[in-house]
Amino acid sequence: MDAVGRLAAGVAHDFNNLLTVILAHCESIVPMLPPNGPAQHALKGIRVAAERAASLTGQLLAFSRRQVTQPQVLDLNDVLAGTKVMTTRLIGEDIRVQLLPGDGLWSVTADSSQIQQVVLNLVVNARDAMPTGGDLTIETRNVTLDGQYVQRHAQVPAGDYVLVSVSDTGVGMDPETIVHIFEPFFTTREIGKGTGLGLATVYGIVKQSNGFVWVYSELGLGSTFKIYLPRVSGRPPAAAPVVREDAGPGSETVLLVEDETDLREILEHYLSSKGYTVVSAGDGQACLEACQGRSPFPPLLITDVVMPGMSGRTLADQLRLENPSLKVLYMSGYTDDALLRHGILPNDTHFLQKPFALHDLAAKLRHILDAPQGPRPPADLS
To answer: What is the reported pTM?
Structure first.
């Protein structure tokens, strides 16, 4: 299973590189097209599809336990409201959907995007169980699990929980199928119709959120998945308005190291259009050779983390022997959580998760370059 997890994370890494290229091209084309025209509409469709593909890589990373999580205090009614549009798109017109949000719902601590992913995976599972239509019910409510419940479900401590249930009137499952449904790559669908990762991902996310998931099903009578997340004190913070930072032009020389040729070329073109002088290289050794005798030394290195021959961190350590004040922006299709846990990146690192938007890259560069240079700890070359 560890090998499968590494495979999933590796696929997600390469896929995120490709998605960064797609999204970057979309962003660069927007100013060239007349506003509100058919080309803009088509471009928006490409961008939305790429963003949905990015969410798929998130599912792979969640399965491999290499996804970065951002747990916070949540109102699950608000989280489910955010899935309403996607739920409508995922199911057919022959399926009736009923949302039953509980009153006075308690708060839980979890990652909002992951909980949305759990619900959408269960919605897809329910849709496939109702090929000729039916009813889908999504409900939230407060529950207190007592000793009697714990006796029947030994893994669940007694206490207060918020319940999310997803019920369908589909074909249902027999007891033998129920035993295996949370196993990775187990599926009852035809070859090519499913990966068997959907419910395994649900299980992994719920457990990562300190919750529990149970399924109740009978052949011909549908299925109900019940997710219990522990109650926490406090209320969710008010949503902050989304402000897109408009980064100004630059004039500095920056080093750009990326082994994916298409991505390197579009990043180099974009940064040059913003006023930066870009010294680009396809690997660490080529970057070291390009920097020999260069004066003044570039103040910033932008580098992929995982590259053939030399990692981004090793490259940064080598360059800092020449310029100790060098600032570094790492980027990767892996998550910073995985890279930090494995000691690949220092804890005080600047990091961009692929796929990213070009304007986010520009904003990050200005933030790093304009920040005062503080004292750095000695480089760890071990």
So the answer is: 0.53
